[in-house]
Write a structure and sequence with these properties.
The chain is mostly beta strands. It contains two helices and nine strands. Strands 1, 2, 3, 4, 7 and 8 form a six-stranded antiparallel β-sheet that branches. The chain has a three-stranded antiparallel β-sheet with strand order 6-5-9. A hairpin with a 2-residue loop joins strand 5 and strand 6.
């Protein structure tokens, strides 16, 4: 299933299996599904903040920070009670709502 994911090393369109086990493996634990736009839902670790996972992305609404998402997460389409692959047309919407948190390494001095 095509999703828009955020991981420690990368973010963007990627493929995962559309199974509960694959979703839990991606986020590293129990999942929480949060609607972020019409027919789009964010899948994240339900305890990401509590267990202090690394920050992955910022959730914006009209340019204002709504939340910070902790831990690997992804966005898929919502079809009824099920998750489904995103469409190419969803990418722009997702990139407007979720911004990756990129932590650059400190410059090392000689």
């Amino acid at each position: 299933m095509k999703v828009y994911g955020f991981t420690e090393k990368t973010y963007g369109v990627m493929e995962i299996e559309n199974t509960l086990d694959a979703w839990q493996q991606f986020v590293g634990g129990g999942i929480q599904a949060v609607p972020i736009a019409e027919n789009l839902m964010l899948i994240c670790n339900e305890d990401g903040k509590l267990i202090n996972l690394d920050r992955r992305c910022v959730w914006l609404q009209d340019g204002i920070v709504v939340d910070i998402i902790f831990g690997d997460c992804f966005v898929c389409r919502q079809e009824g009670e099920e998750g489904a692959a995103i469409k190419d047309s969803d990418v722009g919407t997702i990139e407007k709502i979720l911004k990756p948190i990129v932590i650059k390494p400190k410059n090392k001095r000689a």
